Amino acid sequence: MLKRRSNFFTRVYKIVEKIPRGKVATYGQVAALVGSRDARKVGWALHANTSTKIPCHRVVNKEGMVAENFAFDGWREQKARLVSEGVKFISEKQVDLAIHRLQVL
Length: 105
Prior knowledge:
Layout: H1 2-17, E1 25-26, H2 27-33, H3 39-48, E2 59-60, H4 74-84, H5 97-100
Parallel strand pairs: 1-2
């Protein structure tokens, strides 16, 4: 089970590494790209990530909301990282998916 989990996590990280600056993907998009329908597992993988090279901040929920429990300093840190990359928000915690959602990877 541990080997299968770490393989899933590794696949998630490889996908997330490819999300360009200024774009976001949803947990569901990442799940589909790794051959899963379980967006929640993608969240678990990102929460377990320890590498600063994986841009976990570029993954949001299906409505474009940032994660309340984002590592380091919660949703404010995730938002700050996205804003620094030019990502626009339509509300305090919601990314404008119409502009910034990754279309193809």
